[in-house]
Every structure is written in structure tokens, then in C-alpha cells.
């Protein structure tokens, strides 16, 4: 009898853990929240770092997850929050699924793998279910992901942001204290322009820019080891940067604008395969050169945030 009561109770609690409306009626926001919202710390989290770019598909999620895992490998209590409501990637990258439990305080309990705690909309709606919502509902869900997760004490929480400089980015930067932002770009001009928009957005909302990361700029031939700067064939290896970095519009923009350059992740088929298999590079091949690229970025970010 007691067991049946408990399972019914649990089923009821799990039915709609975010308390999100199922009908098309948008949730009612308290009047206060329609004006300037109050900025709060994320509960039980010491430092928050946002991984962002206004451009889609440049490797934000890949770099965010490898960064969170690198922090854990360095002995920090690390977590990752997927703030991409429409296209969450963290369940795949962390090889996690299933509805989160609710704690005694009715907070969502993160799912964990490889020593990193995580929360994502993907756990709540299922792998292939589309989220077909208007902006207000997205913001309501995001607020709950920001404020109603029981992290249980973290040194650092990495926020994996969706592309753009819209509602989600503004809600995050207005509602929680973000200690720093890492902006990702690929080396093409068109991606860099969007990345710079992202940098300027963070400046506008007074979030410190920790630096920029260049992704997929060089291809290293697995047979002969020759490195090619695929988007910029005339590029020369930069003497002012680390010896393995090609000069590109991004590295030049960093120098010109005084933005720290945090590192360069090569284009490598294994990075994509590791991600797809749910075992990101720093866990799957920790000794590889590409894992070291991710670890060095985490090291740079950690130092700037005084995590070590
Ligand atoms: N350095 C890399 N080498 C090879 N593949 C990569 C690399 N970085 C990212 N990828 C692959 O590129 C694709 C896009 O990466 P990812 O999902 O991390 O980008 P994103 O910026 O988070 O995208 P979105 O804007 O949709 O959130 C993925 O398939 C990923 O595995
Ligand atoms: Mg992503």
C-alpha cells in the first residue's frame, strides 16, 4: 500500500517537474518580473562561466562540455547547464537521458556522468520531442533551469548557450551573476562578425569577457601530420601566439581589441565522433593533442576565474 502510494506520488511529481503549462496558454509572470528582474546567484554554485557565440554550429556545446569535464579532471566540482531550450545537446554529449528526480525541496536533481553534474531541457522533454513554444514559455523554463536545480555545491558551472543575442542570453545575464563569458568562433569572417556581436552583447550587460576560442581552423592530416589552415590557405603561423596557432581574422581581432585569445581547437573527425558517442574527447582520448587543446582552454579560463 505504502509502496503504491509512493510510486503514485512520485509519478505525480514527475509528471511535469518544471510545472510548465501543457496547453497553449502562456504562463503568467508576476508583474515584478516583467520589469527589470532581480539578479541572483545560482544556488550552491561558486563561479559561473557562459560559453557563447551569436553564430550557430561553431562548437559552443563541444567546447563547453569538454571544458566542464576538464575542470572535473583538475579536481573541481564541476557542472554544465544546457540553456538551449530548442536544441539541447548536453544529453547526447554526456550520454545521459531520463527524467530528473525531484529533491525534498522540490528542486530538480542533476544527472551526472564522468564526474560532472548536468541539467538540460532534453532530460525533461525526451530526445526527439520538439519544443514548440513561444518566447515567454521559453523564458519561464529557463528561469526554472537557472533557479530550481539542486547542484549540491559546485566550484564552477558552465552554461552552454544557444546561438544568438536574444531573449535567452539577456535573461541569463540579467537574472544570474555570470562571472565571465567565453566566446567561440570559427575563423571565417562571417562567423567572426557574429562572434564579435556576442562579445559586444556581454560588454553591454557588464559580463567580463574571459576570451575567445578559435575552433576548426586547422586540419591535421592523420597520415603525414601536416597542418593546413583550411579556411585561410595563405595564413602564416603566428609568432605572437602559441606556435601551433595560425593567424586568422579572429586572432587579429583579439589582438586589436585587447580580447584574450584562449586557444585553438583543431578540426578533427574524432572530436565529432567522440561527441556523437557521448564520450567527449577529454574523456575518450585524454592523451591526444586535441584533448590537450581543450584542457589548456579550461586551464586559461580557470586561472582567470581564480578557480585554481
Ligand atoms: N573541432 C572540431 N572538430 C570536428 N568536429 C567538430 C569540432 N567542433 C565541433 N564539431 C562538430 O560540429 C558540430 C557542431 O558543434 P556544436 O554542436 O558543439 O556547435 P554549437 O555551436 O553548440 O551549435 P548550436 O549553435 O546548434 O548550439 C557537431 O557535430 C560537433 O561534433
Ligand atoms: Mg550548442
TrEMBL record:
PROSITE patterns: MRP. It comes from the Eukaryota. GO terms for molecular function: 4 iron, 4 sulfur cluster binding; ATP binding; ATP-dependent FeS chaperone activity; hydrolase activity; metal ion binding. Transmembrane segments: none annotated. It comes from Lineolata rhizophorae. Keywords: ATP-binding, Hydrolase, Iron, Iron-sulfur, Metal-binding, Nucleotide-binding. Pfam families: ParA. Belongs to the Mrp/NBP35 ATP-binding proteins family. GO terms for biological process: iron-sulfur cluster assembly; mitochondrial respiratory chain complex I assembly. This is P-loop containing nucleoside triphosphate hydrolase protein. GO terms for cellular component: mitochondrion.
